[in-house]
Amino acid sequence: MPTWTNWSGSVVARPARILAPASEDEVAAIVREAAPGTTVRVAGSGHSFVPVVPGDDTLLSLERLSGLLHADAAAGRATLLAGTRLCDATHLLWERGLALPNQGDVDTQALAGAIATGTHGTGPAFGSISTRLVAARVVTADGSLLDIENSALLPALRVSLGLLGIFTRVTLACIPRYALHERVWRRPIEACLDALDHDIAANEHYEFFWFPRSDVAESKALNTVDETPPGEEPPALDGPGERLGWAHRIYPSVRDLRFNEMEYAVPAEAGPECFRAIRQRINERHPKVAWPVEYRTLAADDAWLSPAFGRPTVTLSVHQAAERPYREFFTDLEPIFREFGGRPHWGKFHTCTRADLAAMYPRFDDFCALRQRLDPAGRFLSPYLSSLFT
Ligand SMILES: Cc1cc2nc3c(=O)[nH]c(=O)nc-3n(C[C@H](O)[C@H](O)[C@H](O)COP(=O)(O)OP(=O)(O)OC[C@H]3O[C@@H](n4cnc5c(N)ncnc54)[C@H](O)[C@@H]3O)c2cc1C
Q: Would 68-177 and 179-344 be classified into the same CATH topology?
C-alpha cells in the first residue's frame, strides 16, 4: 500500500491507492466507480497538521488539475483548476492583471486545500481565501459533476474539508493587481501590546510574532502602495526591514524549518487578553519553547464552518518544531483558547470532539445534516472525519 505523509510528518497514512486524475471527468469516474462501501478522499499539498486528508481507501491528488481556465479582469473573476498551487494561481492571476486581496503565510498550498480549511492571512477588513469563492465545479458523492453558483450551498461548501464534494474548479472574486510595502520591526512585547489597537487600525495587514525566550515581538505591516514594482520577482530588503513588491510576492514567507501548529480563532475583542493568558502559561510552564506565538486579525464571514463565522476575529497560533513532541504543550494551552471562545483552525492541531464543535459553530449541526443528505453512504468520509461529523 502506498504511503502518504503530510508536510510536517505528523500524519502518515497508508490508503489502498493514490491516484492522480488528469481531468475533471476522470475524478468523477473514480468516485462513481469506487467499490461500494469504500471512501474517496482528496489531498491538496498536505499542509494540514491533522488527518483531514487521508482515508483508508482511495486518495486523490489533483496536482495534474492545475491552471487558469478563464479570467475576466473587468469583472474581477477568475476560474482555476482546483489543484493549482497558490503560488502558481497568484502568478497566473498577476499575468492577467488580477490578485487576491489577501494571502496567508505561505503560498505552497493547493487552492482547493486552502479554501476547504478556511486558510487566511491578516487584516480586520479581509476574510479568508474561501470568502473569495463565488462559484465552483464539484464532483458529488454519486460521481456527477455539479456547477454551483448563486447557490444557498456556497456558505456550506466554502469550508468543507472535502466532505460535501471534490472541487475540480473554483471561481474566485479577484481585485486588480497591486503592490505592497512591507515593514518588519522588533520591540519588547509590552510596547507591541500597547500599540496593538493603533497598529491594527493603521495598517491594512498587521500581525506580530511573540518570541517567548527573548520576550520580543516581531511585527509585520503590509500596506498597498501606488508605485509599480519593476518586476514580478520578490524584491530584496530595501532599507532595514522594508520591501516593496507585487502583493503575491510579498505575502508569502519561506518556511524551511518544519513545525507543528495549533491555532484558535477568538472573538476580536478577546484577542489581547487571550494572548496575555497564553503568554503567562508559556512563561510559567513551557520555558524551553522557542517557537513564536502568532497574532493575526480576520474579518467575519458567513461560511458555516469558518472559524470567523459571524464575528470579527483574532487568530492566535502556537508552534513547535516538527521533530519535538508537541501534544503536551498544545493541550496545555488549548483550554485557554477555549475559555476565550476559541474555534480551532480545521487544518491545525486540536482535540475537540463533535459535541465541542457543535457548541462552537452555530451552523455545525446544519452542516452535518447537509453532509448526510449529500453523501448518505459516507463516500467522502474517513475515520477521523467520521468521528467529528457523523
Ligand atoms: C508552512 C505552513 C504555513 C501555513 N500558513 C497558514 C496561514 O498563513 N493561514 C492559515 O489559515 N493556514 C495556514 N496553514 C495551514 C494550511 O493553509 C491549511 O491546512 C491548508 O488546508 C493546507 O492546504 P493544502 O493544499 O495543503 O491542503 P491539505 O492539507 O492537503 O487538505 C486540506 C483539506 O482540504 C481538502 N481538499 C483538498 N483538495 C480538495 C478539493 N479539490 N476538493 C475538496 N476538498 C479538498 C482535503 O481533503 C482536506 O480536508 C499553514 C500550513 C503550513 C504547513
A: no
Residues of the chain below pLDDT 70: none
| Residue 59 confidence (pLDDT) | 98
Q: Give the C-alpha separation, 89 to 60, whole Å.
A: 20
Pocket test for ligand 1, best of 5, 7, 61, 119 (most atoms within 8 A of CB): 119
- pTM score, whole prediction: 0.97
Cβ–ligand 1 contact at 388 (below 6 Å): no
Q: What is the pLDDT of residue 240?
A: 74
Per-residue 3-state assignment (H helix, E strand, C coil) for 91-134: HHHHHCCEECCCCCCCCCCEHHHHHHHCCCCCECCCCCHHHHEE
- Whether the Cβ atoms of residue 211 and residue 218 lie closer than 8 Å to each other: yes
Q: What pLDDT score does 202 carry?
A: 98
The CATH number of 179-344 is 3.40.462.10
| Residue-level pLDDT at 154 | 97
Ligand 1 mutation target, pool 18, 30, 48, most atoms within 8 A of CB: 48
> Does 119 contact ligand 1 (Cβ within 6 A)?
yes
Confidence at residue 228, expressed as pLDDT on a 0 to 100 scale: 85
- Alpha helices by DSSP H, listed for the chain, are 24-33, 86-95, 111-117, 154-157, 189-194, 196-202, 247-250, 271-285, 327-339, 354-360, 364-374, 383-389
User: pLDDT tens digit string along 145-157?
Assistant: 999 999 999 999 9
In sequence order, which residues have a C-beta less than 8 Å from that of residue 230 and are 6 or more positions away? none
State whether the beta carbon of 31 lies less than 6 angstroms from ligand 1: no
Q: What is the pLDDT of residue 235?
A: 76
Parallel/antiparallel/unpaired status of strands 17-19 and 58-61: parallel
In sequence order, what are the beta bridge partners of 184? 220
Query: What's domain 68-177's architecture?
Result: 2-Layer Sandwich (3.30)
Q: Domain coordinates of the chain in residue numbers?
A: 68-177, 179-344
Task: Report the chain's mean pLDDT, rounded to a whole number.
Answer: 97
Residue 204, CA distances (Å) to 124, 126, 228 in order: 8, 9, 18
Please tell me if the CB atom of residue 45 comes closer than 6 angstroms to any atom of ligand 1: yes
Q: Three-state SS for 204?
A: coil
3-state secondary structure at position 199:
helix
